[in-house]
């Protein structure tokens, strides 16, 4: 039986979950490959987390929330809500540089787009461990908890993800 949450429960949830909103969105963005789907995924995951916050018994709140984001994503896939697009998010697209050389700004944007495209090519299992490690700075133990995989598997996936990413970023010698 669900109990009604009072203001104290809401405040506790906000203190627990809101500091990790950026990490949740970052993971969602790379899982869905689409800004709008990432927004929806984070909203659904946070609703689930809010609903089950009473079951959180301490520990690593960020890993707990990222696990919920990941499970929400895979549940949506299982239930037939396939990935709709392959749109990489380019954070710097609308970023205002303070005075900089236009050629440097363009090169920076081009490098960002190249990296985003390479990341988007990675299979989801590899992309998620790379994002969790390199962008969200989770430990191997935290990544293992989020992905429900042994630490050895996390380390192996991370190594393979890095190798694949580097191979995607190497210039095509024949084409240049």
UniProtKB/TrEMBL annotation:
Keywords attached to this entry: DNA-binding, Sigma factor, Transcription, Transcription regulation
Q: Which InterPro entries match?
A: RNA_pol_sigma-70-like, RNA_pol_sigma-70_dom, RNA_pol_sigma70_ECF_CS, RNA_pol_sigma70_r2, RNA_pol_sigma70_r4_t2, RNA_pol_sigma_r2, RNA_pol_sigma_r3/r4-like, WH-like_DNA-bd_sf
Name one molecular function that GO assigns to this entry: DNA binding
Q: Does the keyword Transmembrane helix apply?
A: no
Among the Pfam families in the record, one is Sigma70_r2
The answer to whether keyword Nucleotidyltransferase applies is no
Q: Which GO terms describe its biological process?
A: DNA-templated transcription initiation
What are the RNA polymerase sigma factor 70 region 4 type domain coordinates in residue numbering? 115-165
Give the highest taxon in the source lineage: Bacteria
Domain RNA polymerase sigma-70 region per the UniProt entry, residue ranges: 18-81
Looking up SUPFAM superfamilies in the UniProt record yields: Sigma2 domain of RNA polymerase sigma factors, Sigma3 and sigma4 domains of RNA polymerase sigma factors
**Family statement drawn from the similarity comment of this UniProt entry:** Belongs to the sigma-70 factor family. ECF subfamily.
Recorded protein name is RNA polymerase sigma factor
Please report the organism this UniProt entry assigns to the protein.
Answer: Duganella sacchari
